[in-house]
Amino acid sequence: MKSNEIPSFFTVHDLHSETLENGVQRGIFNAPGFQFLEYRFAPGAIFPVHSHEANEQMGLVLEGSIEMTIGDESRELSPGDYYYIPRGVPHGVKTLDKPVRVLDLFSPPREDLKR
Question: Which tens digits make up the pLDDT trace of 32-63?
Fold first, then answer.
């Protein structure tokens, strides 16, 4: 999918995809006012604690279960569970015993992930 073309319909195969150092895969979709990422984690994967100073983040667990830490609170999340991360708040994820798929939304879109 070309960055200047925004389709009305698309599939996961149309997303710009990449594999991160820790083996986590993500597909990225950008539109002028929002951005979403589909993450795929293997069992036992860790996405280290980090923060986004300029972006709010919301997400939905689609498959599998994760232990998510947001600030000082940790919670196990399963399919259908949502989470919200305010700007600048440290957060990280650890997957449990099954593959995981989550959908993250960023507002405003992250500049480092625009393609």
Answer: 888 999 999 999 999 899 999 999 999 999 99
Query: What are the residues facing 40 on neighbouring strands?
Result: 25, 101
Rg (CA), the chain: 14
Q: Rounded distance, CA 7 to CA 1, Å?
A: 8
C-alpha distances (whole Å) from 58 to each of 1, 21, 87, 103, 114 are 24, 23, 11, 8, 18
- What pTM value is reported for the model? 0.87
Q: Residue 1 — very low, low, confident or very high, per pLDDT cuts 50/70/90? A: very low
Length of the chain equals 115
Provide the CB-side half-sphere exposure for 84 (13 A, CA). 2
Question: CA 39 to CA 4: how far, in whole Å?
Answer: 23
